[in-house]
Each structure stands twice: as structure tokens, then as C-alpha cells.
């Protein structure tokens, strides 16, 4: 019970994240306001504890460069309509980081498990959206039902469950806990339901990174059970995704349950028969099956393009499928107009012409390029300084590697999708990042104090 104890501030923040994830990522004004109230309440509670107070100081120092660059950008911008939400989100990111950083080492396991449960909400609702063909948990894109989850945006759902899949895989491989392996399978099934192309690229990259970090043998021991279970769980989900076909909730649920059971069973006996060649074969079969089903009626090369939703201007306005490359080009031109301090928070106007028609996109689908447009080079430098300060805050924790892999995947996915503007996501990943650091213990306090006392006794005995 002692190891499950979390401070009131941390518990309130986790409750806020659970609420935000289920309320469309707290993207809309009402849920965003309530989420902010809960998170700010968590921040106030943190100040009453020694660890929490010092963690808040670390977080405030780290977030200061981004806050300063935002102030400069706002002051020099003619449009300040998005300033309040920008400052609020930055404050919430700082609170999320501080809350996690304040957790004592002995209590961090329950914080990680709580984060996995929050991601499970996203995975399960995304799968259900495809299984039942129901909005808002699922949405139709190009004739295909994609899991959009309680966040109601497929790419955001993929960002969360894909990153947590990497986290749980690492924990399963290093700690030998098959519950983490089962959680990884659930996350990957939820990820498959989203059919996120940008997310798939980021996930593939971090599968390779995780392979390098763990080494072939440790990676292989866990990969077979997870890959086999994921293939079984994902196939019915993707088979039910075509808009032209019927919903198959019974088949999807049966496949998901069977996939989780397979992962559970194979993980227990993984040392008896696994071999790297077997691992690669299982991963190949599972990946090929998912890729085939993801393509549905479209060729694979047609599915994996840079297309995204844009609006055609003029009298015949209609939603068309454009090209992310065109959005990036338009964003770059806007960045070039004010490269030092940017256009101001939220000031993004993406327009271009093609074949005599005017097109306008709502999002850059590259968060770093959008930051350059809104905050200029000053904002990019501030982001790098803030990231450095976060990573240098306090002491490194034993969870550093798995949570940095998860956060790294989220940051990689951010190069091709619209993610940071869903308030629940940056706060959730700031919380995970905070788990990689811990507040330095003062002499005479907690475990450090006990160590100093033991050393003193040993010296007295030797004398």
C-alpha cells in the first residue's frame, strides 16, 4: 500500500488527464477550461509538499524560455486571439512535468500504470469506433472507418497509444511483466484501428530504436508474443474498417480478446522456443497482414502519401484531399515573412493556388514548422532550450529510458501531424517526461538520509 501512495496533487492531475482524454482531448473551450482548473488545482497542491515545491521550481525554470518567446511573439503580433490558450497550455505542461518529477522513486510504478490506463481509454474507444462504425469514436476517411477514440481525432489517438506501446514494450522486455506485454498488444491494436500514416512512420522508427536500445536477444524475447497477439487482435479490426461493409463488433471483440490471450500465453513460455529468426518472421507476417488490411481497396502506395484535408476556395468550396507538402511550402513562405519572432500564436494562414483554384488548409501538419511560423527562430531556439532544461532537471530516474522512448516517438510523430494543439497530449507527455527525472533528495531526507545514517554507523563501527 505504501508503494501505491501518490500525493493529492499528482492524483488530481491524473484525474484531470483522464477527464481530458475522454472529453475530446480537452480541445473545445468548455472541457479545456475545466481541465485547466483541475490541473491548476493540482499545481497548487504540489506547492504544499517539499518534493512538489522543488519540482515546480525546476519546471518553471525549464518552461520559462518558451513563455518568454511567446510573450515577445504576442507583443509584436497584430492578432492576439490565441495568446491566452498558448500561455495556459505552457503552464499546464509545466504542471504535468512537475507533478511527475515530484513522485518519490518508490511510488512511480503506480504513476506509470495510471498513465497506461489513461492510454487504454484511447485504445479501447478507438477500437470500438471501428468495430461499431460509430461517431465520434470512429470517423470515415477516404471510405474507411478509422479509430478516432474519445479524443475524436485519429492521429492524436495514434500518437498516444503508439507511444505508450513503445513504453510498455520496453517495460515488458526489461521487467518481465506480462501485463505490460498485454497492455502493449492492446495499444498496438488501438494504433492499428487509427490507420495513422504519420504515426506508422514514427512507430516503425522507434521499433528500430527500441531494438537497438534493448539489443536483439532481449527485443526478440518479447517481440514474438506481442507481434502474434497484435496480428490476431488487429486483423478483425481492419477487416471491419471498410465503410462499404457492415460493422462487426462481435468479431472485433473476439479477435481482441484472443489476441490478448495469445500474448499472455506466449509471453510466459517465450524462453523455451524463441529465436531471432522466428521473431522476424512473426513480425513480418503481422506487419504484412496489417499493411494489407490497412490498404483495403486502395493500393498501399496510394494510402501512404502526404495527402490531407484541405478546402477549395471560391464559389464551389468543397473538402478535397490536398498534399502536406503544399501545406509545408505555404507555411515556409509565411515563416519567411517574419523569421525572427514569427506571426504570433495561432496566426497561420496556409493558402496556395493550383490549376486556377485557390486552396486553404487549416493546419500545417508539422508542429515544428508551425512553431516557426507563429514564434519564429526565437521560438525554435526556446523549444530546444526548454527541452534541454527538462532533460537536465534534477536526477535521472530508473524509468528514464522507456519514458524517453515514448516521448521521443511523440516528438517524431509531431513532424507530420497536428498534435500539440490537443491540450491533453502535451500535458500527458510532459507528465511522462517528468517520470524520467526526480527531485534530488536533501541530506537527511528519505532514502538519501537513511543512506547517510548507515554510512555514519559503519564508520563508527570501524573505529
Task: Explain how this protein is built.
With 463 residues, this protein is an alpha+beta fold. It folds into three domains: 1-102 and 376-463, no CATH class; 113-302, no CATH class; 309-367, no CATH class. It has helices spanning 8-22, 29-47, 50-75, 83-101, 108-132, 154-175, 178-194, 197-214, 216-239, 249-268, 270-273, 276-295, 300-303, 324-337, 367-392, 400-413, 424-434, 446-462, and strands at 138-141, 144-147, 309-312, 318-321, 350-354, 357-361, 395-396, 437-438. The strands form three sheets. It has a four-stranded antiparallel beta sheet with strand order 4-3-6-5. Strands 1-2 form a two-stranded antiparallel sheet. A hairpin with a 5-residue loop joins strand 3 and strand 4. Helix 6 runs antiparallel to helix 7. The longest helix has 26 residues, at 50-75. It is globular.
Amino acid at each position: 500500500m505504501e508503494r501505491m501512495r501518490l500525493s493529492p496533487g499528482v492524483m488530481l492531475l491524473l484525474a484531470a488527464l483522464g477527464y481530458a482524454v475522454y472529453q475530446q482531448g480537452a480541445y473545445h473551450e468548455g472541457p479545456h477550461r475545466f481541465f485547466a482548473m483541475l490541473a491548476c488545482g493540482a499545481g497548487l497542491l504540489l506547492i504544499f509538499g517539499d518534493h512538489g515545491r522543488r519540482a515546480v521550481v525546476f519546471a518553471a525554470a525549464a518552461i520559462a524560455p518558451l513563455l518568454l518567446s511567446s510573450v515577445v511573439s504576442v507583443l509584436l503580433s497584430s492578432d492576439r486571439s490565441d495568446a491566452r490558450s498558448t500561455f495556459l497550455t505552457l503552464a499546464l505542461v509545466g504542471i504535468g512535468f512537475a507533478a511527475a518529477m515530484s513522485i518519490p522513486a518508490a511510488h512511480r510504478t503506480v504513476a506509470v500504470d495510471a498513465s497506461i490506463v489513461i492510454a487504454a481509454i484511447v485504445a479501447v474507444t478507438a477500437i470500438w469506433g471501428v468495430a461499431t462504425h460509430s461517431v465520434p469514436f470512429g470517423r470515415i476517411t477516404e471510405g474507411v472507418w478509422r479509430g478516432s477514440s474519445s479524443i475524436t481525432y485519429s492521429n492524436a489517438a495514434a500518437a498516444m497509444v503508439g507511444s505508450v506501446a513503445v513504453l510498455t514494450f520496453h517495460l515488458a522486455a526489461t521487467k518481465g511483466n506480462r501485463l505490460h506485454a498485454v497492455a502493449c498488444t492492446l495499444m498496438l491494436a488501438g494504433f492499428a484501428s487509427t490507420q495513422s500514416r504519420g504515426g506508422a512512420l514514427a512507430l516503425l522508427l522507434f521499433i528500430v530504436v527500441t531494438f537497438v536500445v534493448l539489443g536483439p536477444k532481449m527485443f526478440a524475447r518479447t517481440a514474438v508474443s506481442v507481434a502474434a497477439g497484435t496480428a490476431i487482435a488487429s486483423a478483425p479490426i481492419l477487416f471491419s474498417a471498410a465503410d462499404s461493409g457492415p460493422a462487426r463488433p462481435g468479431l472485433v471483440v473476439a479477435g481482441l480478446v484472443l489476441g490478448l490471450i495469445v500474448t499472455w500465453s506466449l509471453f510466459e513460455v517465450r524462453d523455451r522456443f524463441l529465436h531471432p529468426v522466428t521473431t522476424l518472421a512473426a513480425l513480418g507476417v503481422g506487419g504484412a497482414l496489417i499493411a494489407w488490411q490497412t490498404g483495403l481497396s486502395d493500393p498501399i502506395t496510394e494510402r501512404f502519401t502526404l495527402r490531407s484535408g484541405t478546402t477549395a476556395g471560391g464559389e464551389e468550396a468543397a473538402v478535397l484531399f490536398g498534399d502536406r507538402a503544399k501545406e509545408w511550402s505555404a507555411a515556409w513562405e509565411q515563416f519567411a515573412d517574419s523569421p525572427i519572432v514569427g506571426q504570433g500564436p495561432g496566426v497561420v494562414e496556409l493558402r496556395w493556388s493550383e490549376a486556377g483554384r485557390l486552396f486553404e488548409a487549416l493546419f500545417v501538419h508539422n508542429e515544428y514548422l508551425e512553431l516557426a511560423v507563429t514564434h519564429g527562430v526565437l521560438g525554435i531556439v526556446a523549444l530546444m532550450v526548454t527541452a534541454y532544461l527538462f532533460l537536465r532537471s534534477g536526477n535521472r530516474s530508473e524509468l528514464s529510458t522507456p519514458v524517453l522512448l515514448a516521448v521521443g516517438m511523440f516528438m517524431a510523430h509531431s513532424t507530420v501531424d497536428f498534435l500539440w494543439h490537443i491540450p491533453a497530449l502535451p500535458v500527458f507527455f510532459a507528465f511522462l517526461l517528468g517520470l524520467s527525472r526526480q527531485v534530488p533528495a536533501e541530506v537527511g531526507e528519505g532514502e538519501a538520509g537513511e543512506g547517510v545514517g548507515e554510512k555514519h554507523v559503519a564508520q563508527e563501527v570501524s573505529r
